[in-house]
Amino acid sequence: MRTVLVLNGPNLGRLGSREPEVYGTATLDDVRAACAAAAAELGLAVDLRQTDDESELLAWVHEAADQRLPVVLNPAAFTHYSYALRDALAMRTAPLVEVHISNPAAREGFRHNSVIAAVADGTVAGFGIASYLLALRAIAGLMGDDD
Ligand code: DQA
Questions:
Q1: Between 70 and which of 95, 104, 125, 141 could a Cys-Cys bridge form, CB atoms 3.0 to 4.6 Å apart?
Q2: Does residue 112 have an active-site annotation?
Q3: What is the pLDDT of residues 39-68, one digit of tens each?
């Protein structure tokens, strides 16, 4: 069974209490459970991780590249300014889908640009935690294309 890394950047460990009017009330554990259930239906396993630390996130992206693991990534605020994360993701060896819980395009101007989008296969944004589930479906489709 293929494993998909579901990587989450800064402040996403606080889902549930973080600006619930923007991000909803589901916790990261709820996201983990929903992803595991959706992945099982797709014949996939998920390994969901979260960090507030850019270097830890880069290490996970390097691990994914070395092990040819597909990635669903919510880069959180790193989306908008981390060229280091963008460069790490450019080395990817398997599908990558960028996700956002909110719709950054409908929010403050600084959220309108993603430095990640150009190195991803695609982006799912604005559907709450369902964005992750749609991204897993997209990953399954992309891996089907590869096989
Ligand atoms: C986010 C959107 C980002 O702009 C923000 O910095 C986040 C969360 C989202 O999932 O909607 O931390 O990636």
A1: 95
A2: no
A3: 999 999 999 999 999 999 999 999 999 999
